[in-house]
Amino acid sequence: MSKGFPETRTDAAMSELVPEPRPKPAVPMKPVSINSNLLGYIGIDTIIEQMRKKTMKTGFDFNIMVVGQSGLGKSTLVNTLFKSQVSRKASSWNREEKIPKTVEIKAIGHVIEEGGVKMKLTVIDTPGFGDQINNENCWEPIEKYINEQYEKFLKEEVNIARKKRIPDTRVHCCLYFISPTGHSLRPLDLEFMKHLSKVVNIIPVIAKADTMTLEEKSEFKQRQESMPFAVVGSDKEYQVNGKRVLGRKTPWGIIEVENLNHCEFALLRDFVIRTHLQDLKEVTHNIHYETYRAKRLNDNGGLPPGEGLLGTVLPPVPATPCPTAE
Questions:
Q1: Distances from the Cα of 74 to the Cαs of 50, 67, 127, 207, 285, in angstroms?
Q2: C-beta neighbour count of 322 within 10 angstroms
Q3: 248: pLDDT confidence band, cut at 50, 70 and 90?
Q4: Which of 71, 158, 251, 303 is most buried, with most CB under 10 Å away?
Q5: Residue 239: which of 229, 252, 249, 226 has the closest Cα?
Q6: CA-to-CA separations, 29 to 81, 294, 321, in angstroms, rounded
């Protein structure tokens, strides 16, 4: 106030309304590397060995889905990938079975052990996909199955007394088999990958690539933004240059499955198992599952699945409607 003027009640009241300045929040300091200042060995690098021992003790889950028309060698390729009879066809299929009228979902579990590490492998087959005259929306049962596995995991996760280790049936990887026609992708292929890539990791493969010429394979790949693996599967061994190799015998010679000059099976195997298996699991959990989880809880008012705002039971998130492929 200016000199000579007494402070009025109004002025005093106004001064009381002015908020006091708040202290600024503390800004966390950036971590400083002190590697050069260590006075001796600590042992933090042993965490890798600890994690290895834990994995060897508990094992891990890996769930792989195979999708494609009948006759593309899906079962044979999966058996070749894991060098064992793990597919539905190898376990319980006979040639007299009729093609299902709708897409069916069949899962078979196995435990594979190598080097002391146990993997609980589940192979999910989808007989009937793409085998009908009218294949309209034939991917919907597959999308529904994938979302159902997310729902199962979410319900276990939000339980107050949840299990120490939640059973993981979520699909970590989907091998999508493309017919080796040499004429690029069909509308069904495009629609499937367009819609299902939002909920699962899709790896496209050109099945029975030995039926295509080198020119056809080159042209096929040039048309695609993502290059599918051109693969050949076989569970039969042949003698080649004194070595036993997996391959397919043809009138002009033996196609070696793991020979990169013959096909790209080795690249597919390395990607799925040897270099990116953990990445596939993490993307499934951190991206696809988290997207489903966020939408599910948001639609449910932030409450656990099965409990609506007024105690009503809510249904799982339905499959995304897809336009009809021509």
A1: 37, 8, 10, 8, 26
A2: 17
A3: confident
A4: 158
A5: 249
A6: 48, 31, 48
Cα–Cα distance for residue pair 103/105, rounded to 1 Å = 7
Nearest to 130 by CA among 161, 98, 102, 97: 102
Q: Which amino acid is at 152?
A: K
Q: Which residues of 114-135 are buried (b: 16+ CB within 10 A; e: fewer)?
A: eeeeebebbbbbbbbbbbeeeb
d(CA 212, CA 169): 36
- Do residues 220 and 205 touch, judged by C-beta distance below 8 A? no
pTM attached to this predicted model: 0.76
Q: How many residues does the chain have?
A: 326
From the list 229, 174, 220, the residue with the least C-alpha distance to 197 is 174
With contact defined as beta carbons under 8 Å apart, do 316 and 148 qualify? yes
Residue 255 token pair:
């196609």
Neighbouring CB atoms inside 10 A of 307's CB total 14
Predicted local distance difference test score (pLDDT) of residue 96 = 53
The three-state secondary structure class of 255 is: strand
CB within 8 Å of 185: residues ≥ 6 apart:
178, 223, 224
Q: Is the pLDDT of residue 313 over 90?
A: no
How many CB atoms within 10 Å of residue 229? 22
pLDDT at 44 over 60: yes
With 80 as the cut, is the pLDDT of residue 262 above it? Answer: yes
Placement of tokens 């009138």 in the chain: 251
Separation of alpha carbons 123 and 73, rounded Å: 14
Q: In what order do the strands lie in the sheet with 173-178?
A: 106-114, 117-125, 60-67, 173-178, 202-206, 229-230
> Long-range contacts made by residues 74-77, C-beta under 8 angstroms, separation at least 24?
74/125, 74/175, 74/177, 74/207, 75/125, 76/233, 76/234, 76/235, 77/175, 77/177, 77/205, 77/207, 77/231, 77/233, 77/265
